[in-house]
Amino acid sequence: MHARANGYKEIGVEIDGSKLDAVGLLVESRTMVPMRAIFEKLQSEVIWNQEKQSVTATKGTTTVNLAIGDVSARVNNRTLALDVPPMLIEGTTYVPLRFVSESLGAEVDFDAARSIASVHTTGNGPTSPGPATPPKELSAEPFVVKGRVTDRQGMPLEGVEIIADNQLARDSYQEAITDEEGYYQIDLPPINTTWNMISYYEHKFEGTVQKFKLTSVTDRPFGGNKGAVRDFVWDDINGMVIIQYNYPDEEKWPGFSLDEVELTLIPVSRLIDGSEGKLIRETTTFSPDGPGLQSVPIAKYEISARWVPDGMNPVPMLVSKFDTNQYGASIVTSDFSAVVGTTKRVAIKLVFP
Known about the structure:
mainly beta, 2 helices, nine-stranded mixed sheet
């Protein structure tokens, strides 16, 4: 499978062994499929509401209702949360494959080797989705490393790159990609060596693909002859807000220091992992990367600033993005750019009014 022009990885979809005419797309670790293609294959009646940008699908006694951009869905009289809402991509409405299929009584498997999602209709009629399947019990076996990758809420992450790095020979490693339930397995060559585990995860947010390096829950080498279970958690979702500033020459601002600047960040979106953001109001500090805030959960923020020196009333400052000179009382930005490796930051500029 290849990446489309819009940046999403394509996922093949099969319904009871027959290939779906349309392809799915991997969006934020969830397989999304064209609305009408999947609903009609699952033999459900579809009604599209143009005004509300919503779809209602009915099969038997089950009714599923979803709307573009809405993370809440209804199955009969139940309201359920979606990890990724329905969305419009290149003029086509895409809906989450697993949620839709299981809501209408089908089962979904994912073949990571072929990048194929397989839907199996059970013939027993649709049922409301039940609780998530409990994690598998994994145990170590010789010359095999396996595990699962989840986010901070324990939800599985699909499409995460897992690398087993051979410590004996340079640039000798084995790779795998997690399936839809977050599981991976790497069969190691039968050689007497130790291995380190590395993981990289790419996540699209506000039009930009962000790359994260994940750390294994059990972060230590293992012998290939014993094998290992190594799980990963995507728990570091932070970047930096760095201030680029030329000190003022005006005598009316004596003693100005960038570690006396207070930044206020108001989230205007959810955090990059989908969780709820909180207002941040902190005084900046110095670091090797520059003055600013060093550990900020990645989100879209409205940012404002003021100088708060001891013994004086706070003085509001004007804010601009680093690459413009359009200053205002605040700016809205989500431009967390990678600067070194997977380190990400937003650069802003400040001046006095």
